[in-house]
Amino acid sequence: MIESSRAQFNAAFSPERYQQLLAAIHADFQYTPTFRVAETPIFIDANMKSMLLEACQQLLAYIQAPDFKEKSEGALAHAPKVPNENPHPEFLAIDFGLCEENGQLVPKLIEAQGFPSIFNFQYHLYQKFLETTPSSLPTRPSSVAWSRTAIRPFFEKLFWAMLLPRRWCYWK
Question: What secondary structure, in 3-state letters, does 1-17 show?
């Protein structure tokens, strides 16, 4: 973690800025989340980024295995069955905790979520951080992946690919 950037962000992020963040989220949705918005940007160095990407790749390899659905059936034995469920999730949000191990921060898996609604909220939360984070900070939240012009065609293509085969079933 880049401690100096974290310290500067914490010093600049006041209760008033937090209220501005919540108000900006409310303005987009005309709804205030019922949960505490507790996410903040993290400031990581190249080494931590590498460790996080490696951990993601290991999890993805497991999830993309041909027998993943069979292996995961027992975890959701009492959950309702979803008709026409795909063998692998189209969306995946992976949450890590940063834990100290032998004096060094390392990522530890908290959970993986395979549903799309979180991506909409996370995109908006990212935008609100850009709006409410002081531009005077040396490091601001940023991510190439969150470009609206880059991500929208991906989602449109994915949703149509998911929707059309299922609509075809209704027309038979």
Answer: CCHHHHHHHHHHCCHHH
Residue 76's nearest CA partner among 20, 114, 24 is 114
Residue written as tokens 């309702």?
80
Q: What is the pLDDT of residues 60-93, one digit of tens each?
A: 999 889 988 888 877 777 777 777 777 777 778 8
Q: What are phi and psi of 169, to 5 degrees?
A: -60, -35
Residue 111 structural domain: 3-171
pTM for this one? 0.70
State how far the Cα of 96 lies from the Cα of 74, in Å rounded to an integer: 24
Q: What is the number of domains present in the chain?
A: 1
46 token code pair: 């190249």
CA-based nearest residue to 91, from 129, 70, 60, 128: 60
| Site of tokens 């949000």 | 93
